[in-house]
Request: fold
Amino acid sequence: MKRKTLTSYDIAEYCDIAPRTAVQWISEGKIKAYRTPGNHFRVKMEDFILFLKEYNIPIPEELEPLDIKNKKKKILIVDDDKNMALTIERTLKLKGRYNLELALDGFDAGRKVVEFKPDLVILDIRMPGMDGYAVTKRIKSIPELSCMKIIAISAFFEQDGKEKILLLGADTCLDKPFDKEKLLGEIKKLLG
Reply:
């Protein structure tokens, strides 16, 4: 069951701030709160979410109502370089518009494509085992997945690599390192 109230420590953790800052926000009236008989602050979940919206702070995914969460587009990030996958995830989390999943190899990507059913896959081409070409070919060979959008990324496309991945069904290709705004623009173009 989802918690109905939050402590100043909970708020500090969600906002990635010091607990003292959370107490200050409450004391200044920025976050509506009440005091317990033990003189501790408690914040109703709905008041905390109103605060986040008012100050344009991304709402943590676990606090979003289920109906809003289900309306978000789903993106699967596939890269064997964990740091790159986490960088892309952080970039997209800041926008707060997407449900995100990570896969660190082609085999995991295949499983998550079927379970998570993403609207878009951001797919590294060069991975050990099952590479991005094989993953794209597999996705596009399954009728119920064939409309899934794919952005192929790589630091080292083969000579005809971009042409090859586009022929297999990818929607676009980006070179690593890529411009974050360009990635966001491509995602917006593909997902509307």
